[in-house]
Amino acid sequence: MVGGHSVSREIKFRAWVENEHIKNGPYPFMNQHIEFMGGLINDIFATSGKEPLNSLHNKITYMQYTGLKDAKGKEIYEGDIVDYLGDIDHINSNVLRVIEYKNEEACFVARLPVGVDGEEAVYLNEHDFKVVGNIYENPTLLEELQNGTK
């Protein structure tokens, strides 16, 4: 309770295990327990129906759901590559950005890749973005942008 009001927010994660994407997909999570330390995931104890996920711990990258959906209704997660569709003058439209968590301001932002000119980070507004991929499944999208070929 905050100020007499109930606060409810969906907290979800997806995971990348080397070349496999996990999000209630091929490895549906069961018996989950996530341990946090210093605001970061320290360990995960879960079974996937095939093997304990903690046995894959060193190979897993976790991405948090931002709580927002893009212009087409797709959930936006950390590590997603998004196309900015807004029309703010000083922000480049149609430039791909990466969703990251900004510790200093305790929020998610859409950040330009290193070496790309423009407004470095844009605060998320769910209707101004379209998810086009993620940094694990589509790394060439960022490489093309950094090389100036996108």
From TrEMBL:
UniProt-listed Pfam families: YopX
UniProt-listed SUPFAM superfamilies: YopX-like
Annotated YopX protein domain residues: 12-143
Protein name: YopX protein domain-containing protein
UniProt organism field: Lysinibacillus mangiferihumi
Taxonomic lineage: Bacteria, Bacillati, Bacillota, Bacilli, Bacillales
